Every structure is written in C-alpha cells, then in structure tokens.
Sequence to fold (240 residues):
Amino acid sequence: MKIFPVVHIVDSNVNIAARESNRAFEAGADGIYLIDHHGQNANKRPLLETFYTVKNESPDRYVGLNILGASPLEAVRAIVRSIARSKGLLPQPSGLWIDDMREDGINRNSAIEFRNSHPSINQMKLLGGVAFKYTETYTEDPDLAFYETEWLKDSVDSIVTSGSATGKEPTTEKLIAMKQSAENKPLVVASGISIDNIEKFDGIVDQVLVSSSIETYPGSGKFEKSKLKALIEVAHSLAK
Fold:
C-alpha cells in the first residue's frame, strides 16, 4: 500500500512546509501532497512556492497539489496558467487532488480532457473526490458510493474517498463497493487512517493520503517522526 503524507502549509510558511516534505521523503513516503487551508484558492503563492522548492530539490519526487476552493476544471486551468506565467520554470505537478469531482456538473470529463490536451500537464495524475467528506454527495452507503464511482471513474486517474469528517475512517463496506466499481482505477482514502487501523484496509485500499494521525497535533503542519515512519513501514508491508 502506498502512503502520501499531506503537508499542510500553515501561516504561509514555505520553509516549514518544505522541511516537513523532505522529512516525509526521508521516512520513505511514496510521495506527498501539498495543501494550504489558509490561502485556499485566493492566494496560491505559498502552495506553488513550496511545490517549486520541494520538486526542485529532486525532480523525480512525486509531489502533488490540492487547490482548495477550485472546481476540477478551474484547478487544472490554474496549474496551466501558473506554469505559463513562470515561463517554464514551474515544473509539472505529479498529481492534482480535487475534493469533489461533481463540481463541474454534467460535463464530468472536462477536467481530464483539458489535462490530456495540454502538454504542460499531460503527465499529471488526476485524483478525484467521490462520496467525499463535506461535499453534497458524501455518503457511507455502499450502493450509493458504488454508483457515484461508476459515474465518475472515467473522469479521473484515481478515486479518492473519505469518512464523514477529518480523522474519520470510511467503512470497509463502502470501500469494497467502490473498489468493485472502480475496476482498474486505484482507490485512495484521505481520512482516518492511522497505525492502529491501516491493516484492516489491506487488499482494499491502494493508496492513503494522511496527515492528522502523523502530525504533532492535527493541522500543525509538522510530522511526528516516529508516527510517520511507523505508518509508512506498516503500509509498505501490506499487499501492493
């Protein structure tokens, strides 16, 4: 199972976020995702500066982004604009995580079609939230989650879901239903996974996005080294 720690950029502090990103890679993480709850969609500068700093240190690293407050199409367009403004200095993100793939309405493939048609981001993985916390279509009902996955799976490279809130794990029944519907698309969980429960998702979940259970306290933006390393080691010992 792959582990992607989520690095929170707190108070626009790029230096701390870059340090914690490096800490995650040193612990053996498969990649990271950067997120900025403070700037959100209004000010992407701390998010992009952190991304540039971390990616430049080692271009082969998997470094993804979550642009909060943006719809799927808005998010991919924002990345293209940012790369263009940098005159090619800003590298292509490894992945773009979007909380709600329903936000573009009936044209559910607009974001992935835009990604595919733009060389500056055409290698960027698109992770889309399905039955995800705090969205109108969040659900723990396995049948509803199955059909949400069926509707949206062609819009993304990976399906991301969650429990009811930050720190809450989804039910295995929901995940099994979504895994069945997703077929060959990776299933990713982005809430509630910790060293205490990760083993019960073995064989169901392909990837985990995690922060709360490995931070010094939830939302601190700083990882507890021992928790970070222990979770990564257990995850990597599970089925691929």
Helices lie at 14-26, 45-57, 72-85, 110-116, 142-152, 172-182, 225-237.
